[in-house]
Amino acid sequence: MLDKLDIENRTAARITHKERIEQPLWNKVALREAVINAIVHNDYTTEIPPVFVIYSDRIEITSSGGMSTIKSLDDFFAGYSKPINRELMRVFKDLEMVERLGSGLDRILPIYGKDSFKISQNFMKNIFHSDGVGVNVRVNKVYEYIKTHQPIKANQIAQNFPGIAQRTVERWIKQLKDEDKIEFKGAPKTGGYVAKQ
């Protein structure tokens, strides 16, 4: 499955006024962790296997379990997990495909945030938008927010996007700077980002 998705994870190019930036449709590390999590933590007593679906603008990874196995969202997003397939977990660990419990979230959340997780009573779904589509939509939202709240600092922008890591928002800000759409004006402590267009 990982090899198949690696083939589907095509590299797209984005041209800025400074450089040509090439990147895969989905972050490779986060995608790998989401796939492994879906397999290892799936509730196989339901006889429902993990499902991987690729759309034109996103990939969706669904596993059986959800709140019936997680119990607490706070604990889940804090990285505390109790594997329901201990033998399978041990096999993946022996193959060095997993490290410690909860480490996969550390590789997913900084890139895609909590909003990429859709958790119901019996299912969990990861939705990763293609960097060429979903990310650009969110980058445009950041740009519009800057235009209506300028001048504004990066941490203030990040506060308006709950569930998205500040590091991710800062990466979007850098993209807007590279595209010559925004600039930082003023002193580091008192200034902020403003739109150039």
Automatic annotation (TrEMBL):
InterPro entries, per database record: RecG_C_sf
Pfam families: HATPase_c_4
Protein name: Putative HTH transcriptional regulator
